């Protein structure tokens, strides 16, 4: 069976007797004829011609009989043949074109917006939804001309929809019946696109839900195999906007941001403009070290402390660094921080990882060291390679204080005129708002690294565009925004300090086509040829620069009261103001 599945890379053919119907067809969105082979088109044409010819013949004979008062039931041979031809062609045409219609009445899921028969109604609904998003809550010039909305459904419908082959149909049935696991499709078929297509079809039948808004075509499924996503059934489209140029350390960057939050890009763009007009921002990398912290247990607290002291001895560290660094030519152990909890010991390893974000790399190095330590500490019980002191994808003070990944500080002096003309506020208002909101307000809220207005908005959008791990936006968005009046109170000094920016330009999602294009736009695609790690470090400074722009713009909108004013003016926004800050 497996070999047979693999070999079926031949063109799709529609079986004549047991015509298979794809889920898209069942939900009434695809014309079955689009993917038919030529012979079937010819058969259809013959039966169509036959049907209309005999209908014409019989009607003319009927008319003749009425005219000559001949009884209708008296039929000659040619009429008998014509009646048979009529019945045969009628049955064929009903069988071929009528099945879809009957199925669509019986099987169509009714609750899904995308499944509504009336596409125009859907689009009107969407337009209404969209209208509520205007204006944007950041009070920028985001006037949206009512461009026609092309629904995802429509985009998908424009593509030819293939009928499933008999073999595919067999596999789909096996998945629906639970006899073939869906996850095994890629290895069994050796064709990732076909596997995704079959899985999707089976899922549609199992759930009875339409997936027609989720595109399948236009994606390289081989590129994610074993690396980025398991059991794919399609991909989600996220628009990418561009903010900039961001003038940072004397260079201009066009910053790609993947987001569905209206005005986020526009707001960041305005911040970039203010920075540019003021001579640019500068950004400095303070530290570069990814962490992993296994937890090990001993029989007594004393034994745990023995290992702590052993690891803290500089001579031992040298040996361990050699063992650790064997894991990769880019991994370089920087330190091990030991924390005791009773008889348990947490070892927070920090290492540089070149242009990779580094989680895999550091984990491999840690495993090497644990294996090595087992010789001298055979009573050490490794409970887990990650003991949460790392701390990955969870809010934790250790990252805020010690840093994780790249620690960056970025600053700019914004000219007073620019504050007034571009940002429509004053230096004094900004400084006061920053003190009361980002510092005092966040302190009152017990914030952990959240001393900013919306750093995570920018971090997430840039992360998604450039193939970073979006879950790491939790610690990567740790940021304190500072503002101060300088030059006798005329200008604004603004800075963002971000201790845990976790980014890479190789590995993970960074090599996928669209994410790689965004990295290329920033000039940081792949491994740096001059100096390993230079690309990922530069990306971290760009993230901080974009955050600086975003902070500047949103804080200005708040200081100028634009946010509330715009809300009041249109009084239609469904958005919660608090969500933007
Ligand atoms: P991560 O550790 O971020 O999960 P991966 O392990 O997926 O990253 O990718 C890192 C891989 O890329 C390693 O195998 C490493 O040898 C390779 N690599 C090639 N060039 C570089 C570079 N300049 N910096 C870091 N890793 C690199």
Describe this structure in words.
By secondary structure, this protein is an alpha+beta fold. 47% of the residues lie in helices and 15% in strands. Among the domains are: 166-224, no CATH class; 241-287 and 406-571, 3-hydroxy-3-methylglutaryl-coenzyme A Reductase, Chain A, domain 2, CATH 3.90.770; 294-389, 2-Layer Sandwich (Alpha-Beta Plaits). Strand 10 and strand 11 (491-501) form a beta hairpin. The longest helix has 31 residues, at 77-107. The radius of gyration is 33 Å and the shape is flat. Adenosine-5'-diphosphate is lined by residues 328, 330, 353-361, 504, 506-508, 527-528, 532. Adenosine-5'-diphosphate binds at residues 328, 330, 353-361, 504, 506-508, 527-528, 532.
Largest sheet: 9 strands, mixed
Give the name of the CATH architecture of the domain at 241-287 and 406-571. Alpha-Beta Complex
Low-confidence stretches: 6-38, 100-160, 577-581
- The count of helical stretches stands at 21
Strand-residue fraction? 5-15%
Fraction in helix: 40-55%
Distinct ligands: adenosine-5'-diphosphate
Tally the beta strands: 11
CATH topology of the domain at 241-287 and 406-571: 3-hydroxy-3-methylglutaryl-coenzyme A Reductase, Chain A, domain 2
Give the class-level CATH name of the domain at 241-287 and 406-571: Alpha Beta
CATH H-level homologous superfamily name of the domain at 241-287 and 406-571? 3-hydroxy-3-methylglutaryl-coenzyme A Reductase, Chain A, domain 2
* Sheet/helix structural class: alpha+beta
Q: What Rg, in angstroms, do the CA atoms define?
A: 33 Å
End-to-end Cα distance, whole Å, is 57 Å
**Mean pLDDT, rounded to whole units?**
84
What characteristic shape results from the CA principal axes?
A: flat
């Amino acid at each position: 069976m497996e070999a047979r599945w693999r070999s079926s890379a031949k063109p799709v053919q529609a079986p004549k007797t047991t015509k298979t119907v794809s889920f898209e067809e069942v939900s009434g969105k695809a014309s079955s004829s689009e993917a038919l082979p030529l012979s079937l088109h010819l058969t259809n044409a013959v039966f169509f011609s036959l049907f209309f010819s005999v209908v014409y013949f019989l009607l003319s004979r009927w008319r003749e009989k009425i005219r000559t008062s001949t009884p209708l039931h008296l039929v000659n041979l040619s009429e008998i043949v014509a009646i048979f031809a009529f019945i045969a062609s009628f049955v064929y045409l009903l069988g071929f074109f009528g099945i879809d219609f009957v199925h669509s009445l019986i099987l169509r899921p009714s609750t899904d917006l995308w499944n509504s028969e009336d596409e125009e109604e859907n689009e009107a609904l969407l337009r209404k939804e969209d209208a509520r998003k205007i204006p944007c809550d950041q009070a920028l010039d985001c006037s949206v001309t009512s461009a026609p909305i092309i629904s995802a459904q429509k985009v998908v419908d424009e593509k030819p929809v293939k009928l499933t082959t008999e073999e595919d149909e067999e596999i789909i049935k096996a998945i629906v019946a639970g006899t073939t696991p869906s996850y095994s499709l890629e290895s069994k078929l050796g064709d990732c696109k076909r596997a995704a297509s079959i899985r999707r079809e089976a899922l549609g039948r199992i759930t009875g839900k339409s997936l027609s808004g989720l595109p399948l075509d236009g994606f390289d499924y081989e590129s994610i195999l074993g690396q980025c996503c398991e059991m794919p059934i399609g991909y989600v489209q996220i628009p990418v906007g561009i903010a900039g140029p961001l003038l940072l350390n004397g260079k201009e960057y066009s910053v790609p941001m993947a987001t569905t939050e209206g005005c986020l890009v526009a707001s960041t763009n305005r911040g970039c403009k203010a920075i540019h007009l003021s001579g640019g921002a500068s950004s400095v990398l303070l530290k570069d070290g990814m962490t992993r912290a296994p937890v090990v247990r001993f029989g007594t607290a004393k034994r745990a402390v023995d290992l702590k002291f052993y690891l803290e001895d500089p001579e031992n560290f040298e040996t361990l660094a050699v063992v650790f660094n064997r894991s990769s030519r880019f991994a370089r152990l920087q330190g091990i921080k030991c924390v005791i909890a009773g008889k348990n010991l947490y070892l927070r390893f920090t290492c540089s990882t070149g242009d990779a974000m580094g989680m895999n790399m550091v984990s491999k190095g840690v495993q090497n060291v644990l294996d090595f330590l087992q010789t001298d500490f055979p009573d050490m019980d490794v409970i887990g390679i990650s003991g949460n002191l790392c701390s990955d994808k969870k809010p934790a003070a250790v990252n805020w204080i010690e840093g994780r990944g790249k620690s960056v500080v970025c600053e700019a002096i914004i000219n007073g005129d620019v504050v007034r003309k571009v940002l429509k506020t004053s230096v004094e208002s900004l400084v006061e708002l920053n003190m009361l909101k980002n510092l005092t307000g966040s302190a009152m809220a017990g914030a952990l690294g959240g001393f900013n207005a919306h750093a995570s908005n920018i971090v997430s959008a840039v992360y998604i565009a450039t193939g970073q791990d979006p879950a790491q936006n939790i610690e990567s968005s740790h940021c304190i925004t500072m503002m101060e009046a300088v030059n006798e109170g005329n200008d604004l000094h603004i800075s963002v300090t971000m201790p845990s920016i976790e980014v890479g330009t190789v590995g993970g999602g960074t090599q996928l086509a669209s994410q790689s294009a965004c990295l290329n736009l920033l000039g940081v695609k792949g491994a740096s040829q001059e100096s390993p790690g230079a690309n990922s470090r530069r990306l971290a400074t760009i993230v901080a620069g974009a955050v600086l722009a975003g902070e500047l713009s949103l804080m200005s909108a708040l200081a100028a009261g634009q946010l509330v004013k715009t809300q009041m003016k249109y009084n239609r926004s469904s958005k919660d103001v608090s969500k933007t800050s």
